[in-house]
Amino acid sequence: MVGDEEQERDFQRFLRRVDDIANLVQGLSSTDSAVNAKAIAEAEKSLHEQECSKEEERNTTVNRTIINTQASDMANAEAVNADGFLAVLEKDAKERAKRRKRNEHLANALKEKGNDAFRKGDYVIAIQRYTEGLEKLRDKQELYTNRAQAYLKVHEYEKAIGDCEWALKCNEKCIKAYFLMGKAHLSLKHYSEARQCYEKILQINPQKESLFKDCMNEVNLEEKRMKDEERAMKEVQSGKLAALSIKELLQKLHRPDQNVLYYAGGIRLLAGAVKDCTEQTLFRTNNGFSILGDNEIVRRGFCAESKNAAEVDLSVSLLLLWQAVCAGNEENQRLLLTRPDVSAQLPKLLSSGVSEIQKETLALIYLYSENENGRRLLVRHLDLTKWLQVLMMFVNSTDARASSAMNILSDLTQEERFKTQCRVTLSTDVLPLFTQLLASAKLVNQAALARCIGIMGNLCADAVIRMQMAECKECWQACLKLVDEYFDVSTSKYQECLFAVLGLVMNLLLESNVVVQYFAVDISDRCMSLLRDKDGRIVTRAIGVLSRILPASSSAVEEVVKGGVVKKMIKFLKAGGETTCSYGIKTLSICTRSNRQAQEDLVKSDKGFSVLLKLLDSENEMIVGNAALCLGQCLVVPGAATSLLNSSVVMVLLKHAGGDAARTSVQANAAIALGKLCVAEPRHIFQLRKLNGLAILNSSMKYMHSV
Description:
The chain is mostly helical. It is built from 39 helices and no strands.
């Protein structure tokens, strides 16, 4: 009886444990935070009690197998109930999965409602919806980061940081969480912590370098701004005259209903008083930028379409003031561009036709364009779609405005966003103006025109811009006109214009279209004429244009061959530098590809192929590949292969055919030339066998399909 009672107690104890564990599992999966926390505590307590029980069992000297005479029966009962327990667990897991799926659907719906409220600017409602979503699903990272973003909008920076930390517990590589946390720390003036957050972004994804640089720059600027303002405040408190004068002058400028000349004079005095960073800071902290918005007379005079003398003086005074307060001060530069009247008026001031206003406007813009951060401010805060056209107009100016405008354009072309904006008006506004300037090259500022042409050439790095320009017939006609005029006007400034045009044409010839084909003969004809020029730079570019235009037209090839292009190229290849040789040998390879006259001319001009053999020893793979191609194409001329019998051509070609050049065309062209050589003159085969060349040639066959 004692054994039966003991067995029953053990069995009941086991069942209670099953119920306890089931309750714990349910509590651990609860979405109620209080129930969840209680379950965690109970689980920890249970585990602790089990450890203590095991320890006691190890220390006891009682042998339970003697006391419990029905152990095997009890074991069978426990095994049966263990199966039941596993079934309970499996059922519970399925229920939890079903419940999670339902909660995830609800959480997503609440997230979308929060996103909609955020887009409408109702950040409090957005926070409520994200919070409700988290009550349904506490491990959803997007809800934490979205709520953190909303907290930033309502200046709840500590809460934003807390949500970002929870998001990182859900996903330790969440870039958005580190980004928002960095923003929150920056708002709290925790500069070191902000930098650490942004450094984490770069560690997680090195491709986010641009974002990292922008964020770090923002931290640096904000930290500098705070230090500058603290320093400026100390100078005001110490009673320094220079610091006090800024405040006094601003107060006088805020007097209403004065005449325009009063404000113009006061603004000039203020511009002269701003000497360093401290005074720039005081101008900012004393609402200096509000002069334009708060004073109707100043604003009206600055924004007037047609300005009288007093309004011109006022506008120039404002531009000088802004130059003084923005020079080297990025925070002031940012604030100025966020003023709607300023951003709207800058392009109008450039087009005003008043030279003094244009000069100072250009000087102000150059403060931005000359450095990377300033350029980013311009492309971020201004609509620059018409700036290419507006600044290009200054090519007509004979004074310093032309140079200033080209400096700004040259700087802006470094920004991809500027190139993207240029696409908008390129065909309709920019190209008509550009072709007009090219056609009027004798009448405009030729130094500025040369720079303008170079800038347009740089813009051709953008495929969309290049395609639009290459399809413009008027542009090609204007380029040809400028080349024609060069033969009559051989001044140094016009020479620079020609050099720039040849570079532009080379870039445009990266495109292939019917317009290019139409002008191919004319372009190649002008280049042939330029090969006689005394300026080596122009000769090199003319050869470069030939190397790109000839593939577009067989008629152009015929014309240049008739004009003696082969003999000229051989001459330049003998004495030219690497760039000239690269263009020259490519030109020859195009001409000899299918023109028998060119092949024969090359054999006559390059006795024993001495020039080509020299090029085959070049370290430039493009030169080697084209030299091998050219040689192979000329071996069809009777006697050409025989003239190479006593040369090292087999060894040289074999070396390239079996080499490891990055350009597979080198191996392929060398192997083809070697094969043609042996077919044209079988005696070369003896040398080939002697060098074990057949095996090397066989291994080179894999490159043939890539030719």
